[in-house]
Amino acid sequence: MSDTPTTVVAEWVEAYRTAWEDADVAGAGALFTDDATYQVTPFTPPMTGRAAVEDYWRRVTSSQQERRITCTWLGAGPDEQFVHFRAELQVDGGRQVIDGMLAVRIDDHGRCTALREWWHSDADG
C-alpha cells in the first residue's frame, strides 16, 4: 500500500472539495460515472446514477453558504480510497460543522463508481 495517493486520486479528491466549496453541481456530477452509486449514510439506500448525484448535491448545497471544505486522503484498500473531510458552513443562518469519511472507488478514467459517506454534524459549530 502506498503512502501517497496516485495523481488520479489526488485530482479527484481536490475536484470533489472544490465542487462542494463552490456548490458546483455539474462539477460534482462530472466526478461520477453514469451508473455510480452514492450512499450518504450506512443506513440509507444508495442513490444510483450521475443525475441522482447531481439532484442530491443541488438539494444539499442550496441551503449552504460560506462553505469551507478540507479533504485529506488517508489511504487505500484493495478497491477503495479513504478520505477524511471537514466542512464548515452556514445553513439557515446558523453555523454547522460536518466531519466525516468517504470510501471511494475510482475507475481508470478518474471517475467515481461508488461512494459511501459516514459523517456527524454539530449544528452549533
SSE string, helices as H and strands as E? HHEEHEEEE
Q: Count of helices?
A: 3
Low-confidence stretches: none
N- and C-termini, Cα separation: 35 Å
Gross geometry? globular
Q: Regarding quaternary structure, how should these chains be classified?
A: single chain
Strand content: over 45%
Q: Would you tell me the overall average pLDDT?
A: 93
CATH class: Alpha Beta
CATH architecture tag: Roll
What's the total count of β strands?
6
Major sheet: arrangement of strands: 2-1-6-5-4-3
Indicate the radius of gyration in whole angstroms. 14 Å
Count of domain modules: 1
User: Helical percent range?
Assistant: 25-40%
Q: Indicate the CATH topology.
A: Nuclear Transport Factor 2, Chain: A
Largest sheet: 6 strands, mixed
Q: Structural class, from helix and strand content?
A: alpha+beta
Structure in a nutshell:
The chain has helices spanning 7-21, 25-29, 50-61; strands at residues 32-39, 47-48, 64-76, 81-91, 94-106, 112-122. The chain has 125 residues and is an alpha+beta fold. The longest helix is centred in the first third of the chain and has 15 residues, at 7-21.
